[in-house]
Hints:
Strand order of the largest sheet: 1-2
Oligomer: single chain
Structural class: mainly alpha
Amino acid sequence: GRGADSQEWWPWESLSVDRLSIDPRKSLQCAGKMFLRCVLRRLLSKPRFSAQVANGYTNCLVAGANATCLVKNSGGIYPWTPCGKVLGCRESYHWGSHAFHDVRYQVHQDGSSLAEEELDPFSLVADELSLLADRLRAMVVAEVPKLASAAEYFFKIGVEGKRFRPTVLLLMASSLSLHVPENVAGAAFDSLSKTLRTRQQCIAEITEMIHVASLLHDDVLDDAETRRGIGSLNFVMGNKISVLAGDFLLSRACVALASLKNTEVVSLLATVVEHLVTGETMQMTTTLDERCSMDYYLQKTYYKTASLISNSCKAIALLAGQTAEVSMLAYEYGRNLGLAFQLIDDVLDFTGTSTSLGKGSLSDIRHGIVTAPMLFAMEEFPQLRAVVDRGFEDAANVDIALDYLGKSQGIQRARELAAKHANLAAAAVESFPATDDENMRLSRRALVDLTQRKQHQLASDI
């Protein structure tokens, strides 16, 4: 296959009815997402909708303990409505850089590197994440009680998950400098900073809604019974409600996305929806050869997992008015981070516990999904290919495959590939334009730290 950044890797026009030998309801579900994306692209062709606002700006601020002001409309600087207002949220908050005073980290410059006594990326944006969680719960309110209950199922306190993607995006926003015209200063500069932070928060909210929608749909496709340590929504409320709840979240994400009035950002995140559908379809319709191809596996993984975070990181940079080069560095960080995390999850599916995974161990192989560890094992033991071709409906085949995996370097090689992508993600951040701003440097250090955290989990589970 082509590189993971190609958007035309999978030729949809070549799909035939015979190729899509899957449940018609699942085909309709995927087709619905594709239709939604086409509508967004059609809207982008309308001059009134696609009118660009002034070149985006951002700030280099992250959350701290002291909320400083209530952000309302930008007073004409940007002809847009904050996503909170569009979707019923009354307030949007912004934190200034002075809020770092209570952060329990000491960062100092040692040559060109940062040395930290303690660094918790999630704590850096903890207060902001809490406000985002409140806004997300308000954004998914629906008129029909059962739909409302389903839509908020994974946004309720205690089951929101790690909120990893919003954390990455807020840190990315804080890592990039504020690009403004030279004659902008003082109050005007502060206003632009506040406005752009709110817009970047909106990207984090949109990304989380798309992510949760994909989880709801995936659980239906996989007949999953658990998610995040509790019963999956399809198991609790049924497939129909679960699919509709996912569609509802995508519609809310579209409304918030339209409020940004930035056609390039809209196009990026509309493409993400296409990639989610493409990746899921690739997984459901693999031929025997594709099933055993590492290139095919990595491309599918990009579509299903890495596209969302990579394109969202790029959107953050674009809103900041960053150059194409810096925007691509943000994209590469997200792409490689997403691939690394999925590779590690694939290893944990064999080595971890259901507690650490939030789902049953050996989940992928029992669903007939061949991942990196098994693909590497197949390179060492070609006879394993015959077992894979027979499928894993028979538990005896699962045991044989696991025996080959245990004798191979499959687990270790998958870990090494994950480390390679994690290092590439870190290198992308380290290639950002140099800055002396300590808060920006701290946020960049946190992004680099995130590339290592999952590997530490892997080491502890093994």
